[in-house]
Amino acid sequence: MSGTPVQTPRSGRPPRGEPILERAFRVLGAFAEAGEGLTLHTLAARAGLPKSTTSRIAAQLTGVGALERRDNGDFVVGLQLLEIASLAPRGHGLRAAALPFMEDLHRVTGQHILLAVRDGDEAVLVERLSARDSAAVKYRIGGRLPLTGTGIGIALLAHAPERVREEALADANDAALLRRLMAAVRTEGVCAMTVPNPLRSGPTTMSTVAAPILDRHGDALGALSLVTPDEGGTRAAAARTALRTAGLAISRAVGR
């Protein structure tokens, strides 16, 4: 849910015949940050729907607990969505198998440990462990990340269907680099790279090492990643074996 406004006809009306369920998901998709509260006006603008339509849908979503309304009138995501989302097998089952290994990595490194699955041409973060004093990063559970430009995304992309890989390569700013990183994932079991920190505070660059979690057919069930301040990449480089080993162990745990 990126919060990016949806393109609508010049009339401001939703496409004719658009199902109510799709409109409801457009309203839910307007939220971009955890705990974010939106006014009706902002909710309508982000969803690309008329204010009256948004008001009606938001009231229905509030009635079933998918949204909640604060005392000031702002809408927030409701707990009912969290309860339902926690049942998703691709996230929940993988998370349960991965968590002990993530906790070990987190205890040793004191840095961000991420777990993600692929959804189409994006990665969805299903778990994150972070220490209080670790550098701030713009990753949240349930948030979406590009498959290109992030270590965890490239670890997923390297074992994605050929069509997904080719589409990513066609859109990549540096297709040659992306090919090399994907090849490293398939041959070495990890992707190591330095990425810009999108936050203004903290280090300007971060290092990341990511390893895929594969099923017995070699397809990616998910991916595991360490994200740490760059420091010349030394800390991330030292974690390559640990990430690769954890990825293999989680693969075996999921298989059992």
Describe this structure in words.
It is a single chain. The protein is an alpha+beta fold. The chain has two domains: 20-84, Orthogonal Bundle (Arc Repressor Mutant, subunit A); 88-255, GAF domain (Beta-Lactamase, 2-Layer Sandwich), CATH 3.30.450. The chain has helices at 20-28, 40-47, 51-63, 79-85, 89-109, 151-157, 162-171, 175-188, 234-238, 240-255, and strands at residues 67-69, 75-77, 112-119, 122-129, 144-146, 191-196, 205-214, 220-229. A six-stranded antiparallel β-sheet has the order 5-4-3-8-7-6, sandwiched between helices. It has a two-stranded antiparallel sheet with strand order 1-2. The longest helix has 21 residues, at 89-109. InterPro entries: GAF-like_dom_sf, HTH_MetabolicPath_Reg, Tscrpt_reg_IclR_C, Tscrpt_reg_IclR_N, WH-like_DNA-bd_sf, WH_DNA-bd_sf. One of its GO terms (biological process) is negative regulation of DNA-templated transcription. This is DNA-binding IclR family transcriptional regulator. It holds the Pfam family IclR_C.
